[in-house]
Amino acid sequence: MKKLFFSIFLGLTTMLVMGQEFTVSGTITDETGIPLPGVTVTVKGTSTGTQSDFEGRYSLSLTEGSYVFVISYGAYGGPEELRVQVFEDSVVNYQIGQREVLDEVFLSAIRVSADSPITHSNVDKEEIEKRNLGQDLPILLNYLPAVVTTSDAGAGIGYTGIRVRGSDASRVNVTINGIPYNDSESQGTFWVNLPDFSSSVESIQLQRGVGTSTNGSGAFGASLNILSDGVQEEAFGQLSNSYGSFNTWKHTAKFGTGLLKDKVELVGRLSKIESDGYIDRASSDLKSYFLQGTYKGDNTLLKALVFGGKEITYQSWFGIDAATLESDRTFNPAGARFDADGNLDGFHPNQVDNYTQDHYQLLWNQRYDNNWSTNVTLNYTYGRGFFEEYENDADLDFHGLSSVEVGGETISSADLIRRRWLDNNYYAANANVNYKNDRWDTSTGVFYSYYEGLHFGEVIWSRFNVDGELGDQYYFGTGDKHEFTAFSKATFQVNDQWSVYGDLQARIVNYKTGGLTSDKINLLVDETFEFFNPKFGASFSLNDTNQFYFSYGRANREPRRSDFENGVTKAEKLDDYELGWRFNSEKVQVNTNLYYMDYQDQLVLTGELDNSGAPVRATSGKSYRLGLEVDAAIQLGDKVTLRPNIAVSSNKNKDFVTSRDGSLVNLGNTNISFSPSVIAGNSLEYAPVGNLRLAFLSKYVGEQYMGNIDSETSKLDSYFINDFNVSYTIENVPFAKSIVLSGLVNNLFNVEYISNGYFFTYDDDFSNPGTITTIEGAGFYPQATINFLVGATVNF
Q1: Cβ pair 501, 489 in contact under 8 A
Q2: pLDDT at residue 18 in the model
Q3: Residue 251 in contact with residue 285, Cβ under 8 Å?
Q4: Quick check: is 309 in a domain?
Q5: How far apart are CA 523 and CA 511, in angstroms?
Q6: Do the Cβ atoms of 387 and 354 come closer than 8 Å?
Q7: Which residues pair with 157 in a beta bridge?
Q8: How far apart are CA 328 and CA 735, in angstroms?
Q9: Gap between the terminal Cα atoms of the chain
């Protein structure tokens, strides 16, 4: 394996297209003509790029041809694109704001600019494309500050998850073009339902903490705002194919018409991803599509989108115990079948999750003059599917089946196959108005959504078949959720140094259920929650290189369906305080922030899983997260860039009470589950020649507990993993604009590590009659050892 990658590396470094190079240079300024340092100028579709110096100057060496410069400029927004024709040494100056990126307007109400008092990170499509070889979006965001990712199948394809500041994915508010993506009932985000959506992403903003007001359930750890493909002025075609370990394949075909008559554009994508997974039988068969039509007038931007995916994923969410981890770390117990003597008798071949999700969106932005604009978004999402289970010796009566007489014996339990279905519709509408002048930037808007979900189960096979009963629903439940949100936010530029920010949000949620749960228990809920979420902050610019900010934000959050099933009815409350310093010089940018997140009735993960493999939560009373986050971008000469980050935190439950050995015990302050105290990452990028880019990526995650009682049984060891990424762009190809060759080695040093698991306790009163002993246990999700992906993208 090492020899293979060494050979690939040598081959790529020698495939240099020789030709005369010209110098393109210039100055980047703001709207008033002041030179801007630290502006990134990259050549679209390549790894070629530079940053402006302290006087706003930049310089690039390019061969003859037509290029698109992508200009990303931090505190001033962006990115912007500029087409440049190179045939001689030339000077190209650029003023920020001379070409407004209208697509960004769709997220202006929920995104923040880089000089706002909100802690955040921005990721553009060029950054995503570097490692987009089939892995899910959370894995591609793994190296952002305070982020931990995990994969059930072990290789980053299929069911994947993301945690930010120790908060799991259900507490990270995710929006796509301003529309909530979190499931309304479970509050989770299932990226497996949108495979290869990374190939249709224009930009992403991750706000840590409460952040600004957004749509959907409150951000209790972070919010992730995604903007789909922006308008491309030029027509293009793209074919991407990749292959890698575990028989992983990714095929993507994408096209764009460019702006026809400077008004209309159509963009489309089809994708297919297959993988056997690192874990046994943890296969994925994923298909997706994306189609977007755009009308762009002088003051109007109208987009119609339809996108979605279908996934068939073999279940791998059961995990394994410590003994199995040592003897067979890729073992998957899902679908196990046993004979009459209790011996393993193979695995059910169709123990799969099978789900389809379609999204329809209409986005309209209208600008009336230099100050006023409006934005309206409509959405409909349709999801349906099931997961299939082989049940050994299942109770027939529970599943709505009659007992069977066999040889004079009454059979009341038997092996069977069941499917548990979810069928849901989600409607949403969002509208806001923006006013902006030299000192004010205000947005006011409303959001309404309605969700209706059906939950039911059916038996499709039984060892003792009963005519007329198979296929009948043995449980049926409903869930309906209405949500209304109104907000108003404003930023006021007091003077050249000070700006202040205010944000008021009111949110009303009604959740109503009926029928039975999958455990055939009546679930009758009719709860209305009314929340008021104020936020405010201030920014102070000491000089051109130093800025300080402070913010306070409140968030409230309703329980999810599984919480109600477990008897939890209280809403959570969070007060988030952020204090930050940003340093921006010619070669060094540093973001530092100190945060304190004060929770009341926080729903923390207990470590246990329910019968669907979903994490169980419990109210912890009072708790907090206190941390320091630092991330930087350091330019070491013209060819080397270093991007380190570290998050150090203390995450505690206050006076945590639990049941142990039959009695309630106050454990004092305990660690919050799945909240490592140290998370660090780094990217070392080297561009030895124009079109060749090498990156060495590192991630350290400190030890963490899977429960809240500081049990050694629940501890996950720390781990340190490294990836290697290489890309080379071949330009001036006779039949194409360019070919991008990419390679990715994950877990380069073959570390055996675990990023996720579960922890449980139960009372045993059989071992010692008259006494109760609490027994502890744990399960683990091993992640893949060294593995690779290689790919080629042909751009037409």
Answers
A1: yes
A2: 36
A3: no
A4: yes
A5: 12
A6: yes
A7: none
A8: 49
A9: 32
Whether residue 663 is contained in a domain is answered as yes
Number of CB atoms found within 10 A of residue 697's CB: 23
| DSSP strand pairing (670-671 vs 640-653) | antiparallel
Candidates 478, 472, 474; CA nearest to 512 is: 478
Strands 94-95 and 21-29: parallel
CB neighbour burial string for 455-465, b if at least 16 within 10 angstroms, e if fewer? bbbbbeebebe
Look up the CATH number of the domain holding residue 82: 2.60.40.1120
Distance CA 558, CA 127 (A): 35
Rounded Cα gap, residues 206 and 128, in angstroms: 14
Rounded Cα distance, 317 and 313, in Å: 11
**Average confidence (pLDDT) per 10 residues, the chain, 796 residues:** 40 40 82 72 80 81 80 62 76 68 62 85 89 94 95 95 92 93 93 95 92 86 92 92 97 95 94 97 97 91 96 95 96 94 94 98 91 94 97 93 84 93 97 90 95 96 72 93 96 92 96 95 96 96 92 95 91 96 90 96 79 75 95 90 96 89 86 96 92 95 95 96 96 90 97 95 70 86 97 95
Give the domain-ending residue among 99, 134, 153. 99
Residue 161's nearest CA partner among 784, 755, 627 is: 755
Report which of 149, 151, 180 is spatially closest to residue 163, judged by C-alpha positions: 149
Domain count, the chain: 2
pLDDT at residue 719 in the model: 98
d(CA 653, CA 607): 15
Beta bridge partners of 240: 252, 793
| Number of Cβ atoms within 10 Å of the Cβ of 676 | 23
**What is the Cα–Cα distance from 743 to 7, expressed in whole angstroms?**
12
CATH number at residue 271: 2.40.170.20
Q: How far apart are CA 703 and CA 705, in angstroms?
A: 7
Q: What angle do CA 249, 250, 256 make, to 5 degrees?
A: 160
Q: Residue 750 corresponds to which tokens in the numbers above?
A: 């073959």
Q: How far apart are CA 27 and CA 791, in angstroms?
A: 36
Question: Is the Cβ–Cβ distance between 160 and 152 less than 8 Å?
Answer: yes
Instruction: Examine residue 431 and state whether it is found in any structural domain, yes or no.
Output: yes
459 domain-assigned? yes
Both tokens of 59, joined, read: 């310089």
Q: Is the dihedral of CA 561, 566, 571, 577 positive or negative?
A: negative
Residue of 78, 68, 66 whose CA lies nearest to 39? 78
**Residue 314: both structure tokens together:** 């073999």
Give φ, ψ of 5 to 5 degrees. Answer: -70, -30
Burial class (CB within 10 angstroms; exposed 0-12, middle 13-18, buried 19+) of 382: middle
Domain around 495: 236-795
Burial of 286 (0-12, 13-18, 19+ CB in 10 A): buried
CA angle 295/300/304 to nearest 5° reads 40
pTM: 0.86
SS3 247: helix
Among the three residues 61, 82, 99, which one is the final residue of a domain in this structure? 99
Q: What's the maximum distance between 2 C-alpha atoms anywhere in the chain? A: 95
Q: Report the distance separating Cα 179 and Cα 447, nearest Å.
A: 9
**Residue 260: CB partners within 8 Å, gap ≥ 6?**
none
**How far, in Å, are 108, 441, 539, 602 from residue 494 at the CA level?**
21, 12, 10, 37
DSSP 14: H
Task: Report the C-alpha gap between 393 and 340 in whole angstroms.
Answer: 9
